[in-house]
Fold these 2 entries.
Entry 1:
Amino acid sequence: MRTYAILSILIATLGLLSCNSSQSGQHTRPKINPKAEFVSLEGRVIGPVIKTEEEWKTELDAMEFHVLRQAGTERAFSGKYWDHHEEGTYSCRACELPLFESDKKFDSGTGWPSFSDEYMRGNVVQVSDNSYGMMRIEVNCARCGGHLGHVFNDGPEPTGLRYCINSVSLKFLEAKRN
Ligand SMILES: [Zn+2]
């Protein structure tokens, strides 16, 4: 009985510690490859965008910084794009790398813009995320390391994927790629 009590306290303490670390805002952004090359929406070859958190803070508004740089999440049904149906491309809010397209967007009912595929392989990078006691796959912009959301495997065919993305991480552009 005593062992059980001590164990319970230990587990509770560990739980508190892990909660604190995931809610502290000290989220480590993925490393950017300084030699990586990407293609802009206009077809130009563009390099990575590497900035300090201080620099990002001056360029992004408070909510954009919280989501893109600290892996925050906007409230469901509160963003600009969950119910947005125009044709075009969704680029990264921070660096303008094209990430998703309207023809892969679907209504998931979650209150966040949801896509079944990426614009181009390599533009979105995946990192495992164990915060909040859940095993999830976080998705980030490969050019600037900005947090976008998560990807789940309960999406529509043919990919079966559901990219659940924060509107605040995206910038919609009506121009479509050729
Ligand atoms: Zn970006």
Entry 2:
Amino acid sequence: MDLSVSLNRLNLKNPILVASGTFGYAREMAAFVDFAELGGIIPKTVTPAPRPGNPPPRTVETASGMLNSIGLDNDGFDQFVAEKLPYLTSLGTSVIVNVAGKTMEEFERMAAVLSQQSGIAAVELNISCPNVSGGVDFGTDPELAARVVTAFRTTCELPVIAKLTPNVTSVVPIAKAVADAGADAVSLVNTFQGMAIDWKRRKPVLGNILGGLSGPAIKPLALRIVWQVKRAVSIPIIGIGGIQSIDDVMEFLLAGASAVQIGTANFYNPGLANQLIRELPDAIRFLRAETPKDIVGTLQTP
Ligand SMILES: Cc1cc2nc3c(=O)[nH]c(=O)nc-3n(C[C@H](O)[C@H](O)[C@H](O)COP(=O)(O)O)c2cc1C
């Protein structure tokens, strides 16, 4: 079956990708994953300068999910381009570089460098991380979100995906704004802000107090957002949130996602994305369809 999908200027061999922050920079996963089979890899977010991240503890398990407050721990953009990107672009799959910045200028500087690199399929703008403070919160304001996309598009020819936060009253106006600014696609969603408490110590569990909730616990919320945005914007959607089975993948495609990302599940089943790619053709045939494209957004509602 031809599993390929096109998200405007971004063409993928299949719609199953691995999500930023849950797959390292791929090298860590080499023993468990057939990289070349994946629809794409989105490495951990990089920022212009190295960041130590938040104080520990930085993760805690919750019912059907986990909270993390990693805080964009990374070695910085220059080190990424020099040392991690060459490995990533040698793996035979689409590499979607994920970047975050504190100012418009930071995004522009990274855009200029990325536009000179070969082998990158697209850039995902992380304007949605709930675990960092300082700088401008681009992802919760439609106008600022659109300005980041415009700045990036002006400086860099690569396809641009805006990864949006669910921590707003409605994602729809932000999705509309980035679509109007020329984003090729939107990734929905990043983690939901939450917290965990150790009542016996009268202390928050996470060093950062607040963290981002991910995993199966958020799947119904993410599905709802994908469905709402699909009805409001025409650019393709990449669905993310709690996916751990082929049923989950199919639900996101029907809700309106053209592709999906596997996140938290990589931590307990690193081979999951490979398995889902193999299971996808039968699920599509079950709906008497011939390609993933045929079923995107075909949910029948009363
Ligand atoms: C430990 C951890 C680290 C993450 N780091 C990033 C990150 O650096 N950049 C980013 O855009 N998203 C990051 N995310 C969010 C995921 O990419 C994804 O959007 C979210 O976890 C929801 O999907 P899931 O429920 O399948 O995990 C992180 C998630 C987790 C659990």
